[in-house]
Amino acid sequence: MNIDSLSQAFRRFLYMSSGVALFFSTLASAQELEPRTYSAVPVGTNFVVLDYARSSGGVSLDPAIPITDLQATINTYSLGYSHSFGVAGHVASVAVSVPYSNADLNGNVEGAPGHAYRSGLGDVHFRFAVNILGGPALAPEEFARHTPTTILGTSLTVIAPTGQYVPSRVINVGSNRWSFKPEVGLSQPLGNWFVEGTAGVWLFTDNADFFGGKRRSQNPLLTFQWHGGYTFKPGLWLAADLTYFTGGETSVNGVKDQDRQGNTRYGVTLSVPLSTQWSAKLAWSRGLTTRFGGNFQTVSVALQYRWFNR
């Protein structure tokens, strides 16, 4: 079989599988490992973050799909901004980030090699968070004198369907649907140590134009995160991370797929201050158990700039 025929066969079988469409949506939602998301900051704090993440590894598909040894490499670049302010005496924040991603996929279709590539702007992420216990709204000068306490917070993340989407492709950078994640999080300082936990659920609207006008639905996806770490000095900390996500079965025109997730990931995150306003964050994670979807190893580096309102 020649190269063009192999490529066409690979694309044809990819189109048959709604499960393959989970690549970007899963990577952008359930697989994140983010410590310190509910830590306190002064009101009037602004952050601009440049982030790069590279994920690579195998993908587990429904055994009925004639694609084996599927491997993916995904590069994601994102630019984000966040701002903190006071709400009823507690600190709150709003954030937005815009990703750009590209992906190489290689596998065997009925024993013959095939390849697919995608590249483009991803869906925009929005997040609103507020501390409902602890984390009082303090100016920078007051915050510097404040002793950290237990923080209980809540947040809502929204992913808008703004990314590149072509209905004739089953694999897209954009998801062509809205996603919402309400979440609660607890952060407990123990001297220089800290422990954290979050629980949330991703809720999805339908994609009414999936691969030529079909309707693709996805059940809620439960997510849990645990983090434990040590702060060496302000801005310099190291954390061990663990996440578990389950559910998220999909269906196309009411026909259910056998793609229920039940995956666990672990990793480490290091934050390093570079100057008064600049800092960097390095992170590594990989799959521990993967029932369905990508079993990726991910390495990321972020550069962050901070300033206060005057």
- Percent helix: under 10%
Major sheet: arrangement of strands? 1-2-3-5-6-7-8-11-12-15-16-17
Radius of gyration: 21 Å
Mean pLDDT: 87
The arrangement of helices and strands along the chain is HHEEEEEHEEEEEEEEEEEE
Coarse structural class: mainly beta
Unreliable spans: 12-19
Tell me the overall shape: elongated
Structure overview:
The termini are far apart. This protein is mainly beta. It is built from 3 helices and 17 strands. The protein has helices at about 5-15, 20-30, 140-145; strands spanning about 45-60, 65-85, 90-110, 110-120, 125-135, 150-160, 180-190, 195-205, 205-210, 215-220, 220-235, 235-245, 250, 255, 260-275, 280-290, 295-310. The strands form 2 sheets. Strands 1-2-3-5-6-7-8-11-12-15-16-17 form a 12-stranded antiparallel β-barrel. It is about 10% helix and about 60% strand. The longest helix is centred in the N-terminal third of the chain and has 14 residues, at about 5-15. Mean pLDDT is about 85; it is low at about 10-20.
